[in-house]
Design brief:
globular; 2 domains; alpha+beta; 6 strands; Archaeosine Trna-guanine Transglycosylase, Chain: A, domain 4; 204 residues
Length: 204
C-alpha cells in the first residue's frame, strides 16, 4: 500500500518518485509480481517518514512505467479498481493491508444526459479556476470513449477539494457519482467566485 496526500481516481495517471527504503522494497516486490499496488489517502500525517493515519478506501494502481535512477525510482501508474481496507497489517517492511474490492459501476443509456451535464459542469469549472490558479488539466482535456471511464476521469480532472474527490471514490452507482460531482463543482465554483483567490486543488 502507498499512502498519499491526494486521491487516485480510476483511470487517472499517477507519477511517483520513490526514494524511501521502505517504498523501494515495496516496488521491488510489486515489479516481481503483478505490477499492482494500492493507493490510499492520508488522513493525518505526511507522505514521508511513516506514522501517518489513513482513510479506509483506496484504488489499485497498475504500473505502466518503471525506471531506476541513481538515488530514486520513477514510477508511472494508472488508477484501476477501487478497494476498501478491511484491516491494516504491520508496516514492516512497508505499509500493507487486507483489502476487499468494490463492485465496479455500471452504465445505462438513460444516463447520457446526466453525463453530459456533469462534463459541462467540470469543463466550466476548469475554465473558471484557470483564471485564478494553475490547474493541471485543460478545459479541452480528452476523455475516454468508454462512458464509465470518462465519468471517473471527470471526477479526476475536476478542480475540487481533496475530501470531495475522496467522497466521489465511494460512489455506489454512476448516477450518484455524476450527481455528486456536479454538486461539488457548483460548490467549488461558488467558492472561487466569492474569494477570487486560491483554491485547494489536487494535482494528481
Amino acid at each position: 500500500m502507498f499512502p498519499l496526500g491526494s486521491v487516485l481516481i480510476p483511470g487517472m495517471p499517477l507519477t511517483l518518485r520513490i526514494f524511501e527504503p521502505r517504498y523501494r522494497a515495496l516496488f521491488a516486490d510489486v515489479m516481481a509480481g503483478d505490477a499492482e499496488f494500492g493507493v490510499v489517502l492520508i488522513e493525518r500525517g505526511t507522505e514521508v517518514g511513516g506514522g501517518d493515519q489513513r482513510f479506509s478506501r483506496g484504488t489499485v494502481a497498475h504500473v505502466r512505467g518503471y525506471r531506476e535512477l541513481e538515488s530514486s525510482i520513477m514510477v508511472v501508474a494508472t488508477g484501476g479498481r477501487r478497494i476498501d481496507i478491511e484491516r491494516w497489517l504491520d508496516d514492516d517492511p512497508y505499509p500493507r493491508a487486507e483489502v476487499r474490492e468494490i463492485a465496479p459501476l455500471t452504465w445505462s443509456d438513460d444516463l447520457v444526459d446526466v453525463h453530459r451535464r456533469a462534463e459541462r459542469c467540470v469543463r466550466r469549472l476548469l475554465a473558471t479556476a484557470s483564471e485564478y490558479v494553475d490547474v493541471p488539466w485543460s478545459v479541452d482535456e480528452q476523455l475516454s470513449d468508454d462512458p464509465i471511464m470518462s465519468a471517473w476521469q471527470l471526477a479526476g480532472i475536476a478542480p475540487i477539494q481533496t475530501l470531495d474527490r475522496y467522497a466521489l471514490l465511494g460512489s455506489t452507482s454512476l448516477p450518484e457519482l455524476l450527481e455528486r460531482l456536479q454538486g461539488f463543482c457548483a460548490e467549488a465554483d461558488e467558492l472561487i467566485r466569492l474569494t477570487a483567490g486560491p483554491l485547494e486543488i489536487d494535482d494528481d
